[in-house]
Design goal:
alpha+beta, seven-stranded antiparallel beta sheet
Length: about 180
C-alpha cells in the first residue's frame, strides 16, 4: 500500500481529484450566489400595515416659512432645489437682490438674513459644548423656529454664486 502512495501516478490522480473537487465546490458556490438575490431586511412596520408601500419622504418646507426677505433681498427656490434622502427632504433657497442678481458678499448676505430671522423670533441652535452663539461661526450656525431649521450652505469663496440657505424640517432632524 505504501508503495502505491509513493508512486507518481497515484499522486497525480490524488492531486487531480483534489483540484477537481475545489473547482466544483467553487463553481457551486458561485452559481448559488448568483441564483439568490440579496435581500434587504424589511423595516419595522406597525401591525396591519404589512405589504404597504414604504412611507414617502416628507415634503420640504416651502420658501414662505422664511417670511419676508430683508430689505433689498429676495428668496427664490425651484423644484430642482429640493433634495430628498430616505425620509428627509431639504430645500435650497437662493438669496438674491430684489432684481434677481447674486449679492456682492455672500457672507454679509447670510448674516443679514440670519439677523432678520433672529429679529423675527427664530432661535440659534447651539452645538454640544458651546455656551454662546458668538462662539459659533456663521457657516456652522443653524437657526430654528421650532418647526424648521435653516443653515448656511453657500460657497463663500466663489464670488459668482449666490448665497444659499438649506431649509429643512426640524422634526426630521431628530430622527
Amino acid at each position: 500500500m505504501k508503495a502505491q502512495l509513493r508512486s507518481r501516478r497515484t499522486m497525480a490522480v490524488l492531486v487531480g481529484v483534489v483540484v477537481v473537487g475545489l473547482i466544483v465546490s467553487a463553481a457551486a458556490g458561485l452559481f448559488q450566489a448568483f441564483a439568490t438575490a440579496p435581500t434587504v431586511p424589511p423595516t419595522a412596520q406597525p401591525q396591519g400595515q404589512e405589504g404597504a408601500p414604504a412611507p414617502r419622504p416628507e415634503e420640504p418646507p416651502a420658501v414662505s416659512v422664511l417670511g419676508e426677505a430683508p430689505d433689498g433681498l429676495s428668496y427664490t427656490s425651484g423644484e430642482d432645489d429640493v433634495y430628498c434622502e430616505e425620509q428627509e427632504c431639504v430645500r435650497l433657497v437662493r438669496v438674491l437682490t430684489e432684481d434677481g442678481e447674486p449679492t456682492e458678499d455672500t457672507e454679509a448676505t447670510v448674516q443679514d438674513v440670519f439677523d432678520h430671522l433672529l429679529d423675527n423670533d427664530w432661535l440659534i441652535m447651539l452645538p454640544e459644548g458651546v455656551e454662546s452663539p458668538d462662539d459659533v461661526p456663521l457657516n456652522q450656525t443653524v437657526l430654528t423656529d421650532q418647526e424648521v431649521m435653516v443653515a448656511d450652505s453657500s460657497q463663500h469663496e466663489d464670488g459668482e454664486t449666490p448665497a444659499v440657505l438649506m431649509v429643512g424640517d426640524s422634526a426630521q432632524a431628530g430622527s
